[in-house]
């Protein structure tokens, strides 16, 4: 750290203490150990908002079971382009975490990642036909070659007993399974990475809220900070700023004034889950089981019966039940949405609203559901579910990206969006799923975009971190097998 007048000055400032800032900060301390780096987090611990497994992160999205990543098109043709890309990216994250285990940054893989089968499950003729077509499209791809598929109720009961228990005989059901899936506790992973950053000299500032960004006359960014512990307000400077503040990123990106931020808006969707309280039920289910989203539901609301390992403890949850709140963060303000409206994005937002009345209707119906109705939805997956054995928990906020579109005027985008300034001095990550699971490749993309003059010199080190960087595993089955064997061994997933 240097002093610039009365303001501390850094090479890099990271805003937000989630998995994105943790990943970027960990990479930078290895690539440029002499750089001065500071992290500012509004809460009093890292990984407490979207990266927390009880909020949004936790699946280890690899497109193995999430049906919204492999949509059915005209004539029933299934498009697996997005699924292939996400799976490729997840393999990069696995390689990066393996590297961090090998160099001692992460000491116990099972504290943040566990082997867990991923399943897709549907019922009814149309859904079963789709799942069969999806399987037939995916299994020739080397990335998905180990996928299994069945419509045999006995086999499904073997894979996931709760799906079969109490189900009406004769109902057509179908399931696909990828046994070598994973479950990730991104909160635990985030905190381990940030602890290592602290050890490597990164300045950590918890309970510090960044309120705005402005460009100084010398080209550096001036970052306004509010110390919530003592009420002090001050500013710091940085050559590069990363806004990894989850739902809080849009407001800060807008405050920066960069042209690239114009036209972006945010649509917040809240969520709830049912969590099992009967340990015998929890112990009988060992899989992540994803189904089809309801008509009008956003893709992030795809229902799933989900085994999770949080702080080393096994749990079972079902949901999400989408809701609406104008907060952009779980700990945010009800004024977040109205404050985000700007002259440059109001047209985008109005066009999105016009084209998404079905989404609004869906959210209203979800909010109106009683606990009993929520359990009725669960019974589509687990027919024998007992209402009193499930408690309702509130998850985090997801802020879906609204962006300009030349044809529609504005579109609601379900995914992640990396927005950066033309000179590479600032970048922000907007959006949600698959998010945390693809943090490593997203941060490599950020490094390439924001530091083009240095990236070539970093490539050899980045290839040590992610050996298949720049290669497509689905085009090289031999390399895929080697990489999978190596990460499975290092991360103790066998």
From TrEMBL:
Q: Which cofactor does it need?
A: FAD
Q: Which InterPro entries match?
A: FAD/NAD-bd_sf, MQO
Gene3D superfamilies listed in its UniProt record: D-Amino Acid Oxidase, subunit A, domain 2, FAD/NAD(P)-binding domain
Q: In which pathway does it act?
A: Carbohydrate metabolism; tricarboxylic acid cycle; oxaloacetate from (S)-malate (quinone route): step 1/1
Print the keywords alphabetically.
Answer: FAD, Flavoprotein, Oxidoreductase, Tricarboxylic acid cycle
Question: Which family does the entry's similarity section mention?
Answer: Belongs to the MQO family.
Instruction: Mention one GO molecular function.
Output: L-malate dehydrogenase (quinone) activity
Where does the UniProt annotation place the signal sequence? none
Q: Write down the species.
A: Enteractinococcus fodinae
Q: Does the keyword Flavoprotein apply?
A: yes
Protein name according to UniProt = Probable malate:quinone oxidoreductase
Which EC main class describes this enzyme?
Answer: oxidoreductase
Record field: catalytic activity: (S)-malate + a quinone = a quinol + oxaloacetate
* EC numbers on record: 1.1.5.4
Q: Which gene encodes it?
A: mqo
- Supply the HAMAP family for this chain: MQO (MF_00212)
NCBIfam families hit by this protein? mal_quin_oxido (TIGR01320), PRK05257.1-1 (NF003603), PRK05257.1-4 (NF003605), PRK05257.2-1 (NF003606), PRK05257.2-5 (NF003609), PRK05257.3-1 (NF003610), PRK05257.3-2 (NF003611), PRK13339.1 (NF009875)
């Amino acid at each position: 750290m240097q002093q610039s007048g009365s303001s501390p000055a850094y090479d890099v400032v990271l805003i937000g203490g989630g998995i994105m800032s943790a990943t970027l900060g960990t990479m930078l301390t290895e690539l440029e150990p002499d750089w001065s780096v500071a992290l500012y987090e509004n809460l009093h611990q890292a990984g407490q908002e979207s990266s927390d497994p009880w909020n949004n992160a936790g699946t280890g999205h690899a497109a193995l079971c999430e049906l919204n990543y492999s949509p059915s098109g005209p004539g029933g043709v299934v498009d697996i382009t997005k699924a292939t890309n996400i799976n490729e990216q997840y393999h990069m994250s696995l390689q990066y975490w393996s590297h961090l285990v090998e160099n001692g940054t992460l000491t116990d893989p099972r504290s943040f990642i566990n082997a867990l089968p991923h399943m897709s499950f549907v019922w009814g003729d149309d859904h079963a036909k789709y799942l069969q077509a999806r399987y037939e499209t995916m299994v020739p791809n080397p990335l998905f070659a180990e996928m299994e598929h069945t419509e045999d109720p006995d086999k499904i009961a073997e894979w996931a007993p709760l799906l079969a228990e109490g189900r009406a005989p004769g109902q057509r059901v179908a399931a696909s399974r990828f046994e070598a899936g994973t479950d990730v506790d991104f909160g635990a992973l985030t905190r381990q990475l940030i602890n290592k950053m602290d050890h490597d000299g990164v300045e950590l500032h918890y309970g510090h809220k960044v309120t705005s960004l402005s460009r100084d006359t010398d080209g550096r960014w001036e970052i306004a900070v509010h110390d919530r512990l003592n009420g002090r307000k001050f500013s710091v400077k940085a050559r590069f700023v990363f806004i990894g503040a989850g739902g809080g990123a849009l407001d800060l990106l807008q405050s920066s004034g960069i042209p690239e931020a114009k036209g972006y808006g945010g649509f917040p969707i809240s969520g709830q889950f049912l969590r099992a309280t009967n340990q015998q039920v929890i112990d009988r289910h060992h899989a992540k089981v994803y189904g089809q989203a309801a008509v009008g539901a956003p893709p992030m609301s795809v229902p799933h019966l989900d085994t999770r390992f949080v702080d080393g403890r096994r749990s079972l949850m079902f949901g999400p039940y989408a809701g609406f709140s104008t907060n952009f963060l779980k700990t945010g303000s009800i004024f977040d949405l109205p404050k985000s409206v700007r002259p440059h994005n109001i047209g985008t937002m109005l066009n999105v609203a016009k084209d998404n009345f079905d989404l609004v209707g869906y959210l209203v119906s979800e909010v109106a559901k009683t606990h009993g109705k929520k359990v009725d939805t669960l019974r589509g997956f687990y027919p024998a579910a007992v209402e009193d054995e499930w408690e309702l928990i509130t998850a985090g906020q997801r802020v879906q990206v609204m962006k300009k579109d030349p044809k529609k005027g504005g579109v609601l985008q379900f995914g992640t969006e990396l927005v950066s300034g033309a000179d590479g001095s600032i970048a922000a990550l907007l959006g949600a799923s698959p998010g945390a699971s693809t943090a490593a490749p997203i941060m490599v993309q950020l490094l390439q975009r924001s530091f083009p003059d240095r990236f070539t010199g970093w490539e050899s080190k980045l290839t040590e971190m992610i050996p298949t960087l720049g290669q497509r595993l689905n085009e090289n089955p031999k390399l895929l097998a080697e990489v999978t064997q190596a990460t499975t061994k290092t991360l103790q997933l066998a």
